[in-house]
Design a protein that fits this description.
single chain, alpha/beta, 5-stranded mixed beta sheet, about 20% strand, binds zinc ion
């Protein structure tokens, strides 16, 4: 069966896999990326394709997930603060030329959304919103098995829906974005603010992150519950906005913070219910992501499969 290479390029690490047309991962690669020269980084990506093929057999092409916006019309990478050395470049074309294969690029959250819709928590749904909870809040929309990137590739950025007009400034230039409230820094900021009021809590004196806070909330600590409920409410505002606008049939929640489990997911679902038409809410099932760290590479490979079939990716400029 034909195989495809999926690469997931982060700010520090490159992950890669050879993926079958059924979505099975055959071989993996994980290495630190070259950060001093764009040409050497592109060489590294092409070499990763060759390495995966040497280990697992030939591929028909490669998909590359990148931490930035992939401009639909030009196939250039934009707005990539964690990978600025490739900013403005046609990364797919450059890698494809170096490795002698078709290579296409996609935003990393969109690639993960595509993977979850195809083989993960969104399987069987027609319209999927994928939300990833971590340092930031990423998102992607998949309709009928295809990423909906919008006119130029900027769609799906649920983390930058404003949930608090008077909130903290956001890196995007706005303030009170969902990411500022429900990203990791938002959880920690809220917990410290509540601790400063003098309330008793087992969180006092501990190094805080969402997992620690959820653990205390599950054990019944009222302060920790308030932090969890605040994050869940903000996520409910953002997800309900998407549901009211799009009437989706699946929301898939993933990312490191989501590993806190059902305690958090149940609260997000309840906060979404309060803000949605009953019918819109009833139409939508909520599911945890199931592919974990493989979502990025499986989705990138899927991008290449669909591009080869004429169903994904930018038109040639
Ligand atoms: Zn923002």
């Amino acid at each position: 069966m034909t195989a495809w290479v999926g690469l997931d390029v982060g700010g520090t690490y490159l992950k890669g896999a050879l993926v079958s047309e059924a979505g099975e991962v055959r071989g993996r690669l994980h290495e630190r990326i070259v950060r001093d020269d764009p040409g050497r980084l592109l060489d590294q990506l092409a070499a990763a394709v060759a390495t995966l093929e040497a280990d697992g057999g030939p591929s028909a092409g490669a998909g590359i997930g990148l931490p930035g916006i992939v401009e639909r019309l030009t196939a250039r990478l934009h707005a990539a603060p964690n990978l600025s050395l490739l900013d403005g470049m046609r990364v797919g074309e450059e890698v494809g030329r170096r490795c002698g294969r078709m290579a296409v690029i996609e935003n990393d959250a969109n690639a993960a959304a595509l993977a979850e819709a195809w083989r993960g928590g969104g399987r069987g749904a027609r319209s999927v919103l994928f939300v990833t909870l971590g340092t930031g809040i990423g998102g992607g929309l998949v309709f009928d098995g295809r990423v909906w990137g919008g006119v130029s590739g900027y769609a799906g950025e649920i983390g930058h829906i404003q949930v608090d007009p008077c909130g903290e400034p956001c890196g995007c230039g706005s303030r009170g974005c969902l990411e500022t409230v429900a990203g990791i820094a938002g959880w920690v900021r809220r917990a410290y603010a509540l601790l400063e009021t003098g309330a008793a809590s087992p969180l006092r004196g501990r190094e805080l992150d969402p997992a620690v806070i959820v653990e205390a909330a599950v054990a019944g600590d009222p302060l920790a519950r308030e932090v969890v409920d605040g994050a869940a409410a903000a996520l409910g505002v953002g997800i309900a906005a998407a549901l009211q606008l799009l009437n989706l049939d699946r929301v898939v929640i993933g990312g490191g913070v989501a590993q806190a489990g059902s305690f958090l997911l149940e609260r997000i679902v309840e906060q979404t219910r309060r803000r949605s038409f009953p019918h819109v809410f009833a139409d939508c099932a909520f599911a945890p992501a199931t592919l974990g760290n493989d979502a990025g590479v499986i989705g990138a490979a899927r991008v290449a499969m669909l591009a080869n079939a004429g169903g994904h990716g930018p038109k040639p400029a």
